[in-house]
Amino acid sequence: MIISVLAVFAYFYPDKIMAKNAERSFIMVKPDGVQRGLISDIMKRFEQKGFKLVAAKIMKADNELVKQHYIDLKDKPFYPGLCSFISSAPVFPMVWEGLNVVKTGRDMLGETDPAKSKPGTIRGDYCIQIGRNIIHGSDSVETAKKEIALWFKEEELVDWKLSGYENIYE
Ligand code: IDP
Ligand code: MG
């Protein structure tokens, strides 16, 4: 019954279904991950999962950009050190698209503290301490929108169709 209601919904409102599949997350390899040569492995995990890469670049972020990115943490004692570390060397920001990519992306990253992250997650597999946890991922769809706008210009986001789309989504 639920399936047929969904099928009817999908038939009449294909754009709504597409919109869900077009959720975007801001994922960034931090300087420690870049220096340790982990960009390709991280990209591979998102790509093989079935998510679509919409934007990516290597860049050195200035301190103002990083301070804005982490503005919600401005009262934390680690905020100055965090901002100077993230702006100290190149980072690799990306935008990935797909159904529930924000939540699934966070699951793929693991916990903020690598010591609490399960093996099989990115932080569980590749790092040890919280201040060198190699990767950032948006924590909500709203945050993702803000972060994408902060790090990328509209023209850097590539609109394209994944040829394997029908083999990823029902
Ligand atoms: P998240 O990256 O898992 O979303 P947040 O709480 O948003 O975690 O913190 C942002 C980043 O700040 C973390 O990824 C980590 O690099 C750093 N951080 C968080 N808590 C601590 C801490 O207690 N000591 C040092 N660095 C921290
Ligand atoms: Mg966070």
Give the helices and strands, then pairings.
Blueprint: H1 2-12, H2 14-21, E1 24-29, H3 31-35, H4 39-49, E2 52-56, H5 63-69, H6 79-86, E3 92-97, H7 101-109, H8 122-126, E4 135-137, H9 141-151
Antiparallel strand pairs: 1-3, 1-4, 2-3
Helix pairs in contact: 1-2
Inosine-5'-diphosphate binds at residues 73, 78, 82, 112, 130-131, 133, 136, 139.
Short description:
With 170 residues, the protein is of the alpha+beta class. It has 9 helices and 4 strands; from the N terminus they run ααβααβααβααβα. The protein has helices spanning 2-12, 14-21, 31-35, 39-49, 63-69, 79-86, 101-109, 122-126, 141-151, and strands spanning 24-29, 52-56, 92-97, 135-137.
Keywords summarizing the entry:
binds inosine-5'-diphosphate, alpha+beta, 4 strands, 9 helices, globular, 44% helix, 12% strand, 170 residues
Tell me what the structure shows.
The structure is a single chain. With 170 residues, the chain is α+β, with helices and mostly antiparallel strands. The chain has helices at 2-12, 14-21, 31-35, 39-49, 63-69, 79-86, 101-109, 122-126, 141-151, and strands at 24-29, 52-56, 92-97, 135-137. The longest helix is centred in the N-terminal third of the chain and has 11 residues, at 2-12. The radius of gyration is 17 Å and the shape is globular. The structure holds inosine-5'-diphosphate and magnesium ion. Inosine-5'-diphosphate is lined by residues 73, 78, 82, 112, 130-131, 133, 136, 139.
